[in-house]
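Sequence, please.
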């Protein structure tokens, strides 16, 4: 039987392609959108990471979610620096979540509070993605809007504490493979991972509506 890390990757492959090829992502990576679209997207990420990272101290002691809680992954401080750069010092006052983002963050918070396995699904979907495709997004953003390489605006994508992402991803897959869950719970985690991708796609859809190419 395949390892859990292989199962979760292959089971979410279709959802990954859908997120990756969403109109908003394609337009953003194609350099067809203004920096305001990137800033709006970064704002939405703030709500998601706020939900992922506010309960980490409590979750660190959980047998299922605990091993995944790693300080070098934490993104909220980087997001806040990026938002200050993108929106200015008043960024917090003008911050607002799209309804799709609210739904995503609410689900993450619910898992963080009540279901460690579900939290792992959301953790995997975001952080392993950020360490992978996130690097492509950073490169594109730097070229399209002229951010300093790995500097303000794209710090979210820079994991200062992870000098070797490939090695870190291998270690992370080992954590997934060692997760103390039976087969049924693993199936539930995989289903939550697909739901997590769908929630991301929902945010992209809403952003695509807010930033249509030919209005
Ligand atoms: C245009 C946007 C995206 C691009 C170009 C992209 C690209 C990639 C690439 C190249 C990998 C493989 C890395 C490797 O095998 O080491 C990857 C993995 C991954 N991506 Fe994306 N991605 C994008 C969007 C997303 C989104 C929106 C999510 C979810 C929120 C996501 C979640 C993941 C996850 C969880 C993995 C790890 C798969 C695994 O090895 O288990 N990606 N991505």
């Amino acid at each position: 039987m395949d390892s859990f890390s292989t199962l979760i990757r292959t089971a979410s492959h279709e959802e990954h392609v859908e997120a990756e090829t969403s109109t908003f992502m394609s337009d953003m990576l194609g350099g067809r959108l203004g920096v305001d679209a990137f800033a709006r997207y970064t704002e939405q990420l703030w709500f998601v990471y706020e939900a992922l990272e506010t309960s980490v101290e409590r979750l660190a002691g959980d047998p299922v979610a605990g091993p995944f809680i790693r300080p070098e992954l934490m993104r909220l401080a980087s997001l806040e620096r990026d938002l200050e750069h993108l929106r200015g010092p008043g960024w917090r006052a003008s911050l607002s979540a799209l309804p799709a983002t609210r739904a995503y963050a609410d689900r993450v918070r619910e898992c963080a509070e009540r279901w460690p396995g579900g939290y792992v699904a959301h953790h995997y979907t975001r952080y392993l993605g950020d360490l992978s495709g996130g690097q492509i997004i950073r490169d594109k953003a730097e070229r399209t809007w002229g951010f300093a390489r790995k500097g303000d605006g794209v710090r979210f994508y820079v994991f200062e504490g992870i000098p070797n992402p490939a090695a870190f991803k291998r270690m992370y897959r080992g954590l997934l493979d060692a997760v103390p869950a039976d087969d049924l719970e693993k199936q539930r985690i995989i289903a939550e991972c697909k739901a997590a991708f769908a929630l991301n796609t929902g945010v992209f859809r809403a952003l695509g509506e807010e930033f249509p190419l030919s209005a």
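The radius of gyration is 17 Å.
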